[in-house]
Amino acid sequence: MDIKIKITDRDGVLHEVDAPTDMNMNLMEVVRSYELAPEGTIGICGGMAMCASCQCYVKSDHDLPEKSDDEEAMLAEAFNVRENSRLGCQLHISEDMDGLEVELAPEEL
Amino acid sequence: MIKTDILIIGAGPTGLFAVFEAGLLQLKCHLIDALPQAGGQCSEIYPKKPIYDIPGFPEVLAGDLVDNLMEQIKPFQPSFTLGERAETIEKLDDGTFVVTTNKGTQHNAPVVAIAGGLGSFEPRKPLLENLSEYEDNGVSYMIKDPEVYRDKKVVIAGGGDSALDWSIFLADVASEVTLVHRRNEFRGALDSVEKVQNLKNKGRINLITPGEIVGLQGEGQLESVTIRKTTNAAEDITLEVDNFIPLFGLSPKLGPIADWGLEIEKNAIKVDTFDYQTNVPGIYAIGDVNTYPGKLKLILCGFHEATLMCQSAYQRIFPDKKYVLKYTTVGGINGFDGSKKEAPKAVIKAID
């Protein structure tokens, strides 16, 4: 089934998109599939929590899975990090995320 | 001036395999890479990660894949310009190209193959307002000559292997080493973490965690940094230092290649899938750096693209020569170093 996710892109534009729960996708891949951030500026490491190009801020109060050690470590070296920062590539799309609201963090220059 | 047949920009898996395919056609290759070692992302970002979609390898570590490729291309004696970034390209009257690096090294070849992946790896810079003011005036993003730091007060920021390793190394060189990281946990080799712990206990490394450098001060030359330990700015510490070395890893940037007059789409170079040539004849783009309808950024696709590129490069260099594809099972490998590999001859012997 598909869930709805609200994604605010780096220009502040809000997109409400359908994300499939049955295709083994993560949030970074959803953003890329809708081309909400230019290719080459998101998902640079491919989704290994080894860059922070898919950093986003979680704005809704969904109960998301805990951060792994890798994600914690990467966020500790990322820039523009806030309390509600997550790496999109580590958020596996699941039914519990229906209605999730996130904002993409600025691109690191 | 370094002369070669195919000048490959980028020594990642695709660039390395291109050396092999070129070698089968008796074409010589030279590679330029901004990183100090071959392997591209495989060596720099994820050497210990297993890859499962290399044909014939059910599982191979990225670092091992690079080692294997280096072994595979050895007979074809590739040469390298490492630690330098390709900066400019110029077409000569004879149709060949001259590529110059940021350090001024010049390379001349009739064919240029850009295998630049996501671009050249540049240090990630922390977001500090006046950071650029102090670049080369106390702030540097990599350590080229450790002697620069002899008897100096140095502050290093970061939580990975390079931050740990350089803190350990400089503890013996600098008069004072402070390591600042946003959390107590470090992501590095266990051995390095233990060494830093040891040096901290002995008072040789001043460890500030969790902490973050939030300000730089000094007249023309860095004199002190502001370290924030908590979210309360009133509790900020000012630390007198001569040098600040932020080590937050590297991130790829397409860089100067973007200004080479090549057609760019979505941060990648547009190519013709017939031979992966760009809009400039003689310049090819292979692997993650290119784009075309249906493009997939996979190592195995890069290998295919490298192979077709070499065929086209051969035709360009020798327009009058006829060429027939030879299988390595038939032709073997004739290395430029005089080595020869071929299938053993079948034993033919009568049975009495």
The number of domains of chain B is 2
Biggest sheet strand line-up of chain A: 2-1-5-3-4
Gap between N and C termini of chain B: 64 Å
| Total beta strands of chain A | 5
CATH topology of chain A: Ubiquitin-like (UB roll)
CATH class of the largest domain in chain B: Alpha Beta
> What is the residue-averaged pLDDT of chain A?
94
Distance between the termini of chain A: 37 Å
Q: Which radius of gyration of chain B do the C-alpha atoms yield?
A: 25 Å
Global Rg of chain A:
12 Å
**Unreliable spans of chain B:** none
Could you tell me the strand content of chain A as a percent range? 15-25%
Counting helices, strands and paired strands, the structural category of chain A is alpha+beta
What's the mean pLDDT score of chain B? 94
Quickly name the level 1 CATH class of chain A: Alpha Beta
Q: How does the overall form of chain B come out from the CA principal axes?
A: elongated
Question: Which helices and strands, and how do they pair?
Answer:
The complex is a heterodimer of chains A (109) and B (352).
Chain A: E1 2-8, E2 14-20, H1 27-33, E3 55-58, H2 69-75, E4 85-87, E5 100-104
Parallel strand pairs in A: 1-5
Antiparallel strand pairs in A: 1-2, 3-4, 3-5
Chain B: E1 2-3, E2 6-9, H1 13-24, E3 29-33, H2 41-44, E4 50-51, E5 60-61, H3 62-73, E6 79-82, E7 86-91, E8 97-101, E9 106-109, E10 111-114, E11 120-123, E12 153-157, H4 161-171, E13 176-180, H5 190-201, E14 205-208, E15 212-217, E16 224-228, E17 237-240, E18 243-246, E19 250-253, E20 264-265, E21 268-270, E22 283-285, E23 290-291, H6 299-317, H7 328-331, E24 333-334, E25 340-341
Parallel strand pairs in B: 1-9, 2-3, 2-10, 3-6, 10-22, 12-13, 12-18, 13-14, 21-23
Antiparallel strand pairs in B: 4-5, 7-8, 8-9, 11-19, 15-16, 16-17, 20-21, 24-25
Helix pairs in contact in B: 1-3, 1-6, 4-5
Describe the protein.
The complex is a heterodimer of chains A (109) and B (352). Chain A has 109 residues and is of the alpha+beta class. Chain A has one domain: Beta-grasp domain (Ubiquitin-like (UB roll)). Chain A is 13% helix and 24% strand. Chain A contains 2 helices and 5 strands; from the N terminus they run E-E-H-E-H-E-E. Chain A has a 5-stranded mixed sheet, with helices on one face. The longest helix of chain A has 7 residues. By secondary structure, chain B is α/β, with parallel strands linked by helices. Chain B has 2 domains: 211 residues, FAD/NAD(P)-binding domain (3-Layer(bba) Sandwich); 118 residues, 3-Layer(bba) Sandwich (FAD/NAD(P)-binding domain), CATH 3.50.50. In chain B, the strands form 8 sheets. Chain B has a 5-stranded parallel sheet, with helices on one face. In chain B, strand 4 and strand 5 form a beta hairpin. In chain B, helix 1 runs parallel beside helix 3 and helix 4 crosses helix 5. The longest helix of chain B is centred in the C-terminal third of the chain and has 19 residues. Chain B is elongated, with a radius of gyration of 25 Å. Chain B starts with a strand and ends in an 11-residue tail after the last strand. The chains are: A alpha+beta (109), B alpha/beta (352). The interface between A and B is medium-sized, with 20 and 25 residues.
